[in-house]
Design a protein that fits this description.
Length: about 280
């Protein structure tokens, strides 16, 4: 696995270094953009763009709302690797394949990972369009990207998960939101395999288990990132509600529409976190 990771990272480095910008390919920050959350890109200086299909070992996005490109960008002097589209368990990819890009990011120098997603709210205090900073998660995929032989060069056999999401980054994000008068929630995210949206009984189960929102991503990437020793921050846009008497028919188009409306607020928080990063 390590050889494949190194090969992909070397390909990306060469691609960046041979681009018109010819810059240092080391990035400090990684960003994974979820459904309908691509607006962040317009405020970054994109230095190199690589389709996933060109990168050795990379899966290819099959979800229509995901661009499927790896971007090397800059913002306020910080070098950033951006995944414009992610991979999901429901696409038929293994947990190892989902985690692969995060491991490649680490090889490229990334120390902090920012993740966004669209999710369904099950907390009765939530409304469509709310932002939820994830403070913890529940892995309900019934699998894990660390299953199998462990390579100690990637991380320990049994990584600690007592702080999956960096408390300092959460605190900074809350301060940024308050300073910009952005309403934010904090809560627990539960990851399910999908691709079907949840039934009313499943929404109820998610709430009983202690979660505030449910989605089909994020958890595998965060587990892999923490295994690698990366600091993590994740934020959800609540695009639909799984609350009794508020559940309505939902489509992907609905999710994309609601995500696009709230996306500028999410982008502002992530941009400020990047700007303030050491």
């Amino acid at each position: 696995m390590l050889k494949h990771i190194q090969n992909s990272a070397e390909f990306i480095k060469n691609k960046i270094n041979s681009s018109a910008t010819a810059i240092d390919s080391v990035a400090q920050i990684g960003v994974i953009l979820g459904t309908g959350l691509g607006g962040l890109i317009k405020d970054l200086t994109v230095l190199c763009e690589i389709p996933y299909s060109e990168i050795p070992g990379f899966p290819v996005s099959t979800v229509e709302s995901h661009q499927g490109k790896l971007l090397f960008a800059e913002y306020h002097g910080k070098k950033i690797i951006v995944m414009q589209g992610r991979f999901h368990y429901y696409e038929g990819y293994s947990m190892q394949q989902i985690a692969f890009p995060v491991r490649v990011m680490k090889q490229l120098g990334v120390q902090r990972l920012f993740v966004s997603n669209a999710s369904g709210g099950v907390n009765p205090g939530f409304a469509i369009g709310d932002l939820m900073i994830i403070r913890d998660h529940i892995n309900f995929f019934h699998s894990n990207p660390l299953i199998g032989k462990n390579d100690p060069e990637l991380g320990p056999r049994f990584p600690d998960m007592s702080e999956p999401y960096d408390k300092q980054l959460i605190s900074q994000a809350l301060q940024i939101a308050a300073a910009n008068k952005i309403k934010v929630q904090t809560g627990v995210y539960l990851g399910l395999s999908g691709p079907a949206f949840e039934t009313p009984a499943e929404y109820k189960m998610v709430r009983i288990l202690g979660a505030d929102a449910v989605g089909m991503s994020t958890v595998p990437e965060i587990i892999a990132a923490r295994h690698l020793g990366l600091s993590c921050f994740a934020i959800s846009i609540i695009t639909d509600l799984g609350i009794e008497n508020k559940i309505v028919k939902i489509t992907l188009e609905d999710v994309i529409k609601e995500a696009a409306i709230a996306e500028p607020k999410l982008s502002l928080i992530i941009k400020e976190l990047i700007r303030c990063s050491d």
